[in-house]
Amino acid sequence: MYKKNKLENGLRIITNKILGTQSATVLVLVGAGSRYEKIEQRGLSHFLEHMFFKGAKKYENTKQVSEAIDSVGGEFNAFTGKEYAGYYVKVGVENIEIACDVLSDMMIHSTFKQEEIEKERGVILEEYNMYQDTPMYQIGWDFERLVFGDQPLGWDQIGTKEVIGRVMNKDFVDYKKQLYTPENTVIAVVGNIDEEKILEMVKKYFVLENAKKAFEFAPAVLIEGEKVFLREKKTEQAHVAIGFPGYAETHKDHWALKVLSVILGGNMSSRMFLGVREAKGLAYYIHTTTDDYMDGGAIVTNAGVDLKRIDDAVKGIIEEYRKLRDEGVLEDELKKAKSFVKGKMVLNLEDSEEYAHLLAKYALLHGEAKSPEEIAKAVEAVTIDDVMRVARDLFKAEKMKIAAIGPYDDKSRFEKLAEGL
User: Is 49 a residue of the active site?
Assistant: First the structure.
C-alpha cells in the first residue's frame, strides 16, 4: 500500500514499495499541461518540458544530464499532457539518489539560456512536422478539436509554429514561476525502496521555493462545433476517427464507459476488430479508446482503411455503435471486458514508472492517490445496465463526430454516412 506525505509548503510525496524488483522510478508530476495556456502561449508547456533538460546548476547542459543517468544504465524522459506535465528517471534502486539529484537540479535550477532556446526551436519544429506527417497522431488531435472546439481542451500540446518561433527566456521563467509550485507538484517514488529513507532523500533534494499556484485552467465550455472535419492529404491509407463526446473522469459512469470502450474496440476479440477488420477486411488497424479529462471526455474509434472503401469502413464502424446501443451486451462480453481492464492494469503496473504515474496523477488531479485495488473494485462493479445506460446516452446521431485524413474534400459525404446511426 502506498504512503503519502504532505510537506508544510504543500508538496505531496507518495512512496510505494514493490518487492521482487531491483529498480525504482522517481516521477515529478506538475499541474502545468497545455490546458493552462492562453492562445498566445500555445505550445509553451511542451516547449518548457524540453528546456528542463538543457542545463541547470549542477548539470550544466544536456550532455551532463544524459551522462549522469546513462552512467548508471538508467532511463529518463518527460511528457506533456493537457492537464499535467511529468518528468521521471528510472534506475537501479541503489542509484536512486542520482535520480533525485538530476531531477531536482532540473526542476529548481534550470536556466533556460536563450542560446539553448534558439537551438531547441528547430527540434520542436521538426517534432511539429513529424506529427503533421503522421496521420495516426494527427487524427486524434483533429477529433478532439471537433469534440471540444476552439478552447484549450481542444488544442493539441505541440502548439503553433508562430508561438514556437517566438517564445523567449522570460516566457519560460514566468510560466515556471506561476505553475511549478510545491502545492501544484506531486513526487512519486515507486520500486524496491526503503520508504523512510526515500522520504528524507526527497525532502533533502526537492527544496522548492515557497509559492502558490498562480491560476487554474479555464473550465471547459460546451461548444457546438462541426460534425465533420476533413484534412485533405495525399495518402496511401485513409485514417478516420468516429466517436462521441464522453464523460469527465469524475463522472459516476467513468468506469462503465471504459468497459464499454473495451467491448467495442479495446482488443483483438472486440466487436470493431472482429466485425470491421476480420469479417469485412475494411481496416488494417482499428481500436476504440476514451479520452478522459477532469471536466470532459470522449469515446472514439480510430481506424486506418482502404482509400477506396472508406464509405464501407465508416458505415461498418457506425453499425457497431448502433448494434451495441440497440441490441445490448452479453454477460460474457461484460465479464471479459472487465477482466481485460483489470489484467491490463496489472501488466502495466509491473513497470514502476506506470505505477508512479497512476499514483501521482490521482493525487494531483483528484486530491487523493488511488490504489490498483480501488480501481479494480470500481471496474468489477460495472453492470450491463450501466453499460447500456451509457450507450443510450452517448451514441446518438446528433452527437456523432467524424474526422478523416485522406484525399477527401466533401463533408456532406461523411455527414450523410453519419445518418446511419
Answer: yes
Element (H, E) at 291: strand 283-293
From the list 37, 49, 249, 333, the catalytic residue is 49
Cα gap 373→137, rounded to integer Å: 32
- For 256, the 3-state DSSP assignment is helix
Same domain, 254 and 359: yes
- Using CA atoms, how far apart are residues 339 and 319, in angstroms rounded to an integer? 25
CB 365 within 8 A of CB 294: yes
DSSP-assigned letters across all residues of 100-141: HHHHHHHHHH----HHHHHHHHHHHHHHHHHHHT-HHHHHHH
Nearest alpha carbon to residue 325 among 372, 366, 271: 271
Phi and psi at 288, nearest 5°, equal -115, 130
Within 149-280, residue ranges assigned H as helices are: 161-166, 169-179, 195-205, 254-265, 271-272
Give per-residue pLDDT as tens, 78-97.
999 999 999 999 999 999 99
Structural contact between residues 184 and 213, judged by C-beta atoms closer than 8 angstroms: yes
The model carries a pTM of: 0.95
Supply 348's cell numbers: 502495466
CA 274, CA 268: separation in Å to the nearest integer? Answer: 7
Q: Are residues 168 and 234 in the same domain?
A: no
Query: What is the rounded CA–CA span in Å between residue 313 and residue 413?
Result: 13
pLDDT at 304: 97
- Coil, helix or strand for 240? strand
Q: What is the domain extent for residue 330?
A: 228-418
Verify that 238 and 193 share a domain, yes or no: no
Residues 299 and 258 in one domain: yes
**Lowest mean pLDDT segment, chosen from 6-10, 99-103, 219-223, 376-380:** 219-223
